[in-house]
Structure formats: structure tokens, C-alpha cells
Amino acid sequence: MSSSSSFSPANDAVMRNRILSTNLYFDIPPFKVPLIYSNSYDVSFLGIEKLHPFDSSKWGRICRFLVSFGVLDKKCIVEPLEASKDDLLVVHSESYLNSLKESSNVAKIIEVPPVAFFPNCLVQHKVLFPFRKQVGGTILAAKLAKERGWAINVGGGFHHCSAEKGGGFCAYADISLCIHFAFVQLNISRVMIIDLDAHQGNGHEMDFADDSRVYILDMYNPGIYPLDYEARNYINQKVEVKSGTRTEEYLQKLDEALEVAGRRFNPELLVYNAGTDILEGDPLGRLKISPDGIALRDEKVFRFAREKNIPIVMLTSGGYMKSSARVIADSIVNLEKKCLIETRGNPKTA
After folding, report:
1. Residue 141 near residue 258 (C-beta atoms within 8 A)
2. Which residue, 162, 280, 297, 312, shows the most beta carbons closer than 10 Å to its own?
3. Catalytic site residues?
4. Residue 292 within any structural domain of the chain
């Protein structure tokens, strides 16, 4: 059954009230850049986070690179608030959130078995709190994108989590939450998700299975996790890239896909899940895209949004090599060089 069934008219008023009473949407001063990050994003848990291939300090390293390159002033970064239980209940059920109070369930979701043996208060503080801060960042990013034309959450993109089920290092459905908040708070009625992480975005696919307001373009390796064949039925535009696909072929497929997506759907907001696990050498993505190829990929998506005048939210999502942080930072520098974003001085407000 699709978890989108939880978004019934009966729940609609409660959901709207939760969204309208949130603290996650707040006004950002003009001198701040629509780049969202908090030191709390980084997961550090007695070293056991190293048992998962994900680089859980990636987010902080991206920002440090950008500051050291001179393209970003630390004082201009936007710090989000933590998503509260009421915020999370906009998409998640009470029973799912309660399941996260069992350390063994969290251990399964983040794929680090020893976490099962830690007291849940520690797991909440060391693992789930950083994730909730990132969820707050993704939700806020839509508001900032609407105001400024673009926003980057240096985190988020937990695309394997749906309303009722976490997995693949994703405990909360930040993409689904971001979109539901945008529907109500920003009066937006059409959203496109462009998911270019190497893995299929089965979480948001299940959540928006029957929702014609959301158009999903998912370009993924069909031979790797999550192998969710039911969720594949809900992808509006499926682009499968097999293990070993190289940069030139990948970018050509992306060009064709964007052209088709632009003809089929006219969104008012674009959520771009920009995983770097397509990078050559990534142990989980199994694709062979060069660092320059990733910068070009991001440039193509931002140009697509710019030419159609669509506000764009970028999330960093998966990437399982230490080199990912530098690749993302270099890509952001490239977006600035190509005048697709503005990370210095007073950004123009829309």
C-alpha cells in the first residue's frame, strides 16, 4: 500500500495546522546567503559512525572548503532549527516516530548494528538530532528558494525514508516534508523532484505515489539498493543508468531527460537531490562519473531551473567517499562562476 494514503482529507486540517504553526519557516536577513548548514549536522558517535561507509562529517567539510576558497563568509550561512515532533507528524505517523525510540530500529535504518546496544537517549542526541536539524534545513530551503531563486541545504536528501519506513541511512522523509510545507506555506501546487543520487529515491516515490502535484524524474542505477520495484511504478520519468556508466553517456542521458521533463511538467518549485555517489570509485553507487562531470551535472540542473524561472532547492544526499565533500564544494564554486548562484555580497532578493 502506498504511504500517500496517510494524506487523506480527514488528516488535511490537522496537517495544515501543524504546517502553519511551525517555527521552521523564519525570516532570513538579506546579508545571509541561501546556503543552509549547522555544526549539528555532523554525526559523531564514539567513532562507530565509521562502520557505515557514509562520510558523516561531509557536511562540515563542504562548508570549510567554501570558506577557505573565499567564496563564502561563515557569518552568511543560514542556521536552521530542529524539526519538532509536530513538524515530523506532517508526514510521519506517530507509530513510526515511536519506532525510533528503539535503538535497534535506528541501528537497522542507519545500517550500523552496534547502535542497537546504546541507550536511546544517546542515539537521539548523537544520530537523530543531527538528522532533525538537516530536516529543518531542507524545509526552510523551499522558503529561501522562493524568495531568492535558489537554496542549498548542505545536508538532507534522505530519499529512502517514507512516511512509514526508514532505511539506507535515512530516518526522516525530509523531501516529502519540504514539499508538503511548500504546498501550504508557499501556496505552491506543482513540484518537480529531480533525483540524481545513484540510488532510487523510493521514499518520496511511495509518499507521492498518487499525487499528481508532484512529478518525479529519477535517474538511478537499477542494480543496487534499494531494489524497490513497487516504488518504481510511481516514478513519472525513469532513467536507468547501469553500473559502469561513464561521464559522457551519463550527461547525454541527463540532457535528454531534462528536455522531456521540461515538456511534460511545469513546476513552481524544483527539489534537486544531488547525491555524489555517482562519482567514479564510489563503493555503493558503482557508476564512473568524474568530478568535473558532477559539476557539469549540477550546472545543467541549475540552468534548467534558471531558464524556466523555477526556484530550486539542492540537497547533498548520498556520497560515500572522503573526496565527495571537495567535489560538492567545487561544484558550488562552479555554480557561482557561471552566475547561477550568488554566494558573495548582499544576494538579490526576489
Report:
1. no
2. 162
3. 160
4. yes
